[in-house]
Amino acid sequence: MKKIILSLALISPLASATQCALHSQYVQASYQVGKQVAGKAVAESQQFTLWRTPHQVAEQGLELVEVWQQLSNQQIRPIRYFQTPQRGIEYQPSEVQGQQDWSTKYQLVSDDFIAKMTLTDEQGDGCDKIQHYQLVQGDTTIELAWLVNQKLVSAMSIAKPQLTQTLTLGTVDFKKAQIQQQFALWDAYQTTDYADIGDNEGDPFLAKMINLGFIEHGASGFYDANGKALGGGHSH
Predict the structure, then answer these.
(1) How many CA atoms lie within 13 A of 10 on its CB side?
(2) Which residues, at least 6 apart from 223, have a Cβ–Cβ distance to it below 8 Å?
(3) How many CB atoms lie within 10 A of CB 128?
(4) pLDDT at 99 > cutoff 70
(5) In the record, which residues are listed under signal peptide (predicted)?
């Protein structure tokens, strides 16, 4: 798997792990999602952007934005934003099914899952330190290139006999003001509580949401541009 080494623009790559972790709390990272079927690349590769602050994470596709907020009691509150109508659906932590692990949201793959993998290689120092992991589960091989001190996936692949899915890190920015501004822009969208949707069928946007149904939150650690989970729950 391609090895990608990135350094933070505003901090020495030889900085301590603590300095790197603090500086990379505010992140805008673009990812490319790829797919190969029977060894041949599928043309419709997709992209999404990971936005991160210490207590908010967003995965932004072309239209859909999934936001997770870490509350003071450590519960996770999801918000789903739709960019064209500038509308959003807010959920309460109690409305989210399944295990909620903040590390899964914050860094796309959970600490618990990384702990199950085998470290195969390590190189670089400070902010450039990258670790390579592998995990074999039945006929599935998962490989991860992990920027450990930035808590960012550099590259990841999930390989099955006839299907390989890949996630590759592209550009990364650490501009705190710009990242905060993007979250503020989404926060200004008109939102509706999930529990109130059924009482607002006269609203064309909400009526459409009822007809489409909803994707269950927390299914996996990384998603395609449409918010659909990749890899079938590999991160729990």
Answers:
(1) 12
(2) 48, 59, 61, 66, 229, 230
(3) 19
(4) no
(5) 1-17
CB proximity list for 206: less than 8 A, separation 6 or greater = 192, 197, 200
Per-chain mean pLDDT for the chain: 81
Q: What percent of the chain has pLDDT over 90?
A: 46
What mean pLDDT comes out for the span 177-204?
89
Counts for the chain of helices (H) and strands (E), in that order:
5, 13
| 3-state SS, residue 10 | coil
pLDDT for residue 103 is more than 80? yes
DSSP label at residue 137? E
DSSP structure class, residue 215:
P
Enumerate residues 6+ apart whose C-beta is below 8 A from 44: none
3-state secondary structure of 144: strand
pLDDT of 5 > 60? The answer is: no
pLDDT at 4: 42
Q: Which residues contact 105 (CB under 8 A, 6 or more apart)?
A: 57, 68, 76, 221
Which pLDDT belongs to residue 43?
A: 62
Q: What is the reported pLDDT for 211?
A: 66
Cα separation, 9 vs 29, in Å, equals 13
Let me know: does 26 contact 179? Beta carbons within 8 Å. yes
